[in-house]
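Re: that backbone. Tokens:
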């Protein structure tokens, strides 16, 4: 499946937005359908760190284990699902400042669906794009309404 790319501007400093995104336990607050996210490796977080998540997607429970495969603290993180996960997936989140108290977040999702998901790849891509855009609107509302730190 071709990569899905979604961007959102957030009126918060880039460092704050990245810190929020970097803590996977926050995922349940802004990612619809996310049931749990838990680090399975001890801090500090970096390349090689892993976490497990449970989510619902298209009426199915999706269990995924991720590993951080690239990371530029305060700017970018890439996570890749591990073998045995429900769905092969690589997600890159890039946070770029656009001013002293604003930033742009770009999420790129790459996947190589198989079975049922391969047959429905064009529709799946549209659903993924729609869901990511909705989730980032939620993140924007959440972070912009939070008191400044």
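Recovered sequence:
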């Amino acid at each position: 499946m071709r990569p899905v790319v979604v961007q959102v501007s957030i009126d918060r400093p880039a460092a704050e937005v990245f810190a929020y995104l970097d803590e996977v336990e926050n995922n349940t607050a802004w990612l619809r359908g996310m049931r749990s996210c838990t680090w399975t490796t001890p801090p500090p977080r970096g390349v090689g760190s892993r976490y497990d998540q449970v989510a619902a997607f298209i009426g199915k429970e999706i269990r995924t284990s991720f590993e951080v495969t690239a990371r530029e603290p305060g700017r970018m993180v890439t996570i890749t699902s591990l073998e045995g996960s429900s769905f092969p997936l690589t997600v890159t989140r890039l946070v770029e400042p656009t001013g002293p108290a604003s930033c742009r977040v770009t999420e790129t999702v790459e996947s190589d669906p198989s079975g049922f998901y391969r047959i429905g790849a064009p529709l799946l891509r549209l659903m993924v794009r729609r869901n990511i855009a909705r989730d980032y609107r939620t993140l924007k509302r959440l972070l912009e309404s939070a008191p400044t730190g």
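The longest strand covers residues 60-72. The chain is about 30% helix and 40% strand.
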